[in-house]
């Protein structure tokens, strides 16, 4: 099969989108943050005690204070740019997330950058908040609070909760930066107040245990330190909020899709959908969804009829959409399969009586002379559940008799430690029986520790959960681990649904309409694999009923997209070959819809 028309690198979606991101970042740094620094520098310059200095001298300090404030915010925003990401970090519980985020190089870099930033802020605001001079016994407490404690508190919450990640709403392809900042100001001030109160409580304790006896923390110094901390927290959080607002504007540049900046927009968009860069890929799928759902038909005509008669545009788009959805489906299916395998392993390791035998398998001693019944599990499969890939998942063997060539269980030693046999002992050694027992005990404990804390993959390459993940595993975080870019999956489903529905009137005899069978098939697979996770309930799983996990959201979206396509294509589906699972799921969703 042919691929897309070869494109020059300057027409790739990643190159065009990178230029757009640079423009947005420059607007943030040279316009918004510079204006904020100028205003803050002027306020701090004029906030000195009245009557002590003339107004002219205060205005002379304005450029210096502005420069210090601008340097402080510039350090933060440049570091944030280097750690920019849109995918989830991949932790399954809050314990592993705290450990992984704090024990990282990023935490050390951020701590150093924010310490330098707060030194600049404290230097600019020292005269306005602390007055012209500080007493010698207050100097160490002042430095400890402003140079170490305040940056550490902010960096801990910023890194632990992964606030570097850009957040995008499902189905929203564009957001205005000023509106975004305005909607988040209340939450920003609330968080800064909480951090300030934390500083008020922690600062005296640090002063008591860390400062020398000659240094003290008075109530007045504590109050001034709280004001300085609130200033730093507010400035930092505003900078991070503004960065998120400008870098998550979306797929539009001056009201037009980003690919329209290229002379071959559809070919450029196809390179973005296939990009290995998560941010570029996400934005490309946002644009595809924008084109698919827009009331302007002109945005979809290049997909139906390309400028250069490239008939491989739609197949390329469809291929990337199916691959993206299938990637999430496979990830979730493999996880649920591994979870089921672990549960079966735990059941098999339970002690058995003399007449109890393994159900779903047989041991090597009972390989011959057994009566067994083969049952097909596919009959009990609910609509939408994906077919098993391996034969041992389809046919389940139940052992009826296992007495042939069986050992005499009454003669076996029932201890959990099977000590070394004398025939297998080392030759020409002076090891005693006690030494052998001790070595075997250590070996068993070591194997149990490694298998419990650092499990390897199963025989079928399905990953196991570690003990840290099994302990209070968060279903919401596990869902983000399995679907690190859920927005791409959501935009794929929305795009395919909208294009199929709108093409019935706009291009009824085109290639998009003829792809309805493939789209329904992949949506049926999504309903099956994602539905199993959405219904997963376990006593060890910590669930937040107020906020559904991303896989449950994708599951609901897949069902809705499947239903909309079925309802709109209704009679046309009679002339399309559909898999049995698609037909079963169609009947199921239609029955639910009729109820």
Automatic annotation (TrEMBL):
TM region positions: 28-47, 59-78, 98-125, 188-210, 230-252
Xref: Pfam families: Ndc1_Nup
Cell location: Nucleus membrane; Nucleus, Nuclear pore complex
Keyword terms of this UniProt record: Membrane, mRNA transport, Nuclear pore complex, Nucleus, Protein transport, Translocation, Transmembrane, Transmembrane helix, Transport
Signal peptide (UniProt feature, chain positions): none
GO biological process, one term: protein transport
Alphabetized InterPro entries for the sequence: Nucleoporin_prot_Ndc1/Nup (IPR019049)
Main localization category: nucleus
Topology of this chain in the membrane: Multi-pass membrane protein
One MF term in the entry's GO annotations: spindle pole body-nuclear membrane anchor activity
GO CC terms, sorted: nuclear membrane; nuclear pore transmembrane ring; spindle pole body
Keyword Methyltransferase tagged: no
Family as reported in the entry's similarity comment: Belongs to the NDC1 family.
Record's protein name: LAME_0H11408g1_1
